[in-house]
Automatic annotation (TrEMBL):
Annotated NCBIfam families: CDF (TIGR01297)
Protein's UniProt name: Cobalt-zinc-cadmium resistance protein CzcD
UniProt domain Cation efflux protein transmembrane: residue ranges: 43-231
Annotated transmembrane regions: 39-60, 66-87, 107-129, 141-161, 182-200
Keywords for the protein's UniProt record, in alphabetical order: Ion transport, Membrane, Transmembrane, Transmembrane helix, Transport, Zinc, Zinc transport
Compositional bias (Basic and acidic residues): 1-22
Region (Disordered): 1-30
Alphabetical list of PANTHER family matching this protein: CATION EFFLUX PROTEIN/ ZINC TRANSPORTER, RE54080P-RELATED
Domain of life: Bacteria
Chain ranges of the Cation efflux protein cytoplasmic domain: 237-310
Coiled coil ranges: none
A molecular function GO annotation: zinc ion transmembrane transporter activity
Organism: Pacificimonas flava
Membrane topology: Multi-pass membrane protein
Length: 326
């Protein structure tokens, strides 16, 4: 791993010396692969083209399941196109105004896509309840052919997305959109077969509601995880209390760890800053090296900034020569 140390002795007005050290565990370039962008781009094209066929099929057959799935495909096309744009923007390098680059734009896209899934599910449920209240005739044979075509297109799109980074929130959100379409196609096929066999048309809106509920479950998870990143939440495993207790227990001369701030630019770019209070006379460089080694062994953080403070202060009280409380 590439490492770079910053050592900056600063004399504050209280004659208290701080030494800074930062460990960069990876480079600062965003982790965006051409494969992710290409997979999302092809999936968007397939979804957009078949959406037109599904609208026509839904209008001809009178199937709410097909029209609901076509509406879902329309928003999916927009979501996939936005995901593709997010990957493209994230490749742009950092500049003086955006020191972290555009990597977080893909997280913002994932959050918007998650919210869009909530809207889609609500619209499907609304239409389904209206159709249950006022049943309409459905042509099962046309519905079956169009739904089968939709299933094939969604399987291809899902296969394309499976070739991307499965841990990437943007890929996961895009996959959820396509999976929702796939389930919609399966529901439409099932409804078409039942209608052809029995003529019972309420199965069409009932299965549409089931698909909407499945979509909601995945949407909640993506929206929650992306919102956590956007709100500067601590990445899993880098919670302040865990970091503090681990370092005081495993790094020599570290008496107390405070002012721990952990966040992430994206899922793969965690960041962390901390203050370490050490025993008087301790080798500050050795302490920083020990903390860096511990992070390499126990944690995964791209960028760790360490400030070493010498002295003893009761927990929760201010040191007389320190500007900040512990």
């Amino acid at each position: 791993m590439a490492q770079r140390d910053h050592k900056d002795g600063q004399q504050h007005g209280h004659a208290h010396t701080h030494e800074h050290g930062s460990a960069h565990h990876h480079h600062h370039a965003p982790e965006v692969t051409e494969g992710n962008a290409r997979a999302v781009g092809f999936a968007a094209i397939l979804t957009g083209l078949f959406m037109l066929a599904e609208v026509a099929g839904g209008l001809v057959s009178g199937s709410l399941a097909l029209l609901a799935d076509a509406g879902h495909m329309l928003t999916d096309f927009g979501a996939l196109a936005m995901s593709w744009l997010g990957f493209r923007l994230a490749r742009r390098p950092a500049d003086w105004r955006r020191t972290y680059g555009f990597d977080r734009f893909s997280v913002l896209v994932a959050f918007v896509n998650g919210l869009a899934l909530f809207v889609i599910a609500a619209i499907i449920c609304w239409e389904a309840f209206e159709r249950l209240a006022a049943p309409a005739p459905v042509t099962g044979s046309v519905m079956l052919m169009v739904a089968a075509g939709g299933l094939l297109v969604n399987l291809i799109a899902l296969k394309l997305l499976a070739g991307g980074d499965r841990h990437n929130l943007n890929i996961r959100a895009a996959s959820l959109h396509v999976m929702g379409d796939l389930l919609g196609s399966v529901a439409a096929i099932g409804a078409a077969l039942i209608i052809m066999a029995t003529g019972w048309t309420p199965i069409d809106p009932i299965l549409s509601i089931l698909v909407a509920l499945i979509i909601l479950r995945g949407a909640l998870q993506v929206a929650r995880e992306s919102a956590h990143i956007l709100l500067e939440g601590a990445p899993e495993g880098l919670e302040a209390n865990r970091v503090a207790s681990d370092l005081t227990g495993h790094v020599a001369d570290v008496m107390e760890v405070h002012h721990v701030h952990a966040w992430s630019i994206s899922q793969r770019r965690p960041m962390l800053t901390l203050h370490a209070r050490v025993t008087p006379g301790a080798d500050h460089a050795a302490v920083r090296a020990g903390i860096r080694r511990r992070f390499e062994q126990e944690f995964e953080a791209e960028h760790v900034t360490i400030e070493v403070e010498e002295g003893v202060a009761p927990s929760g009280e201010c040191d007389s020569g320190t500007e900040q409380c512990c």
